[in-house]
Amino acid sequence: MSGIESCGPVTALTLGLPSTTAVMHPRGRIAKERFYTNTRVSKRLRQHFIEDIDSITMLAVIRERETGIPTGTLTHEINVIGLEQSTGHPPLEVMEHIARTRDELTRHRSRILFVCVNGSMARFAVFRNANVAEGLMEGSVHMGEPVECESARIRLGGADLDAVWESLCAEIILGSSDPTRVDRRIVSRTRIMRLIKEIDQLERRHAKAVQIGQRNRLWDELQAKRHELEQEQQGETL
Questions:
Q1: How much is the average pLDDT of 29-56?
Q2: Whole-number pLDDT of residue 1
Q3: pTM, entire model
């Protein structure tokens, strides 16, 4: 194990990945300066690289040759990159920049599964590109819940790497390994969270309202939002 790359206590093997996917030390060490030196990045992003990240390490490469899982139509490989954090601030801007840069270099055929390590805790993260057809209007980074490093595991499930990637994203973002229509479900989950917040606010306003006209108007708005939430929740289960 000492010969393979690590990010804090996390390695390809502790993540449950096949030993054939592990990157050997020091080949996986990536100088963070390469992402902001001699490139057009904002001062803000440069500071995030400098202040929020201690190290960037390629922990594993998941391809057909390492795993026997066939290459997908869209996904030819999945890179597992460890980010050792200097602070508790989630390095969202850093991950988005790395993911977009890698995406362009590989002509949209390589994906990145980030493992953000902060002391004894780890969080998985992925970047999803925009998918207008499914209602996802812009690309963004999605992070899973923090877990103890020793409990952080990656499961490679799927007939090909396309399915593996979708399954990983579903698990991290939605808490389900079901790989179907991940982007549509992300959009639906976002709407549900927004509606729950709006309903809570309307309930509070309705409870405080004194005038009959205002109470009736708020009640109608509340009922409409509850109906919208019910419809969205039914749609998510389809």
A1: 93
A2: 46
A3: 0.88
Tokens representing 74 are: 């869209």
List phi, psi (to 5°) of 191.
-65, -40
User: What is the rounded CA–CA span in Å between residue 160 and residue 186?
Assistant: 22
Burial of residue 145 (CB within 10 Å: 0-12, 13-18, 19+) is exposed
Pull the structure tokens for residue 21: 């996917």
The predicted-structure confidence for 96-132, as pLDDT tens digits, reads as follows 999 999 999 998 899 999 999 999 999 999 999 999 9
Q: How far apart are CA 90 and CA 185, in angstroms?
A: 23
Q: Are 79 and 113 in contact (CB under 8 A)?
A: yes
Residue-wise pLDDT for 201-225, tens only, equals 999 999 999 999 999 999 999 999 9
Contact yes or no for 83/116 (Cβ under 8 A): yes
User: What whole-number distance in Å separates Cα of residue 212 and Cα of residue 115?
Assistant: 54
For residue 71, give the nearest of 169, 161, 163 by alpha carbon.
161
CA distance readout (Å), 117 to 4, 20, 61, 70: 17, 22, 18, 30
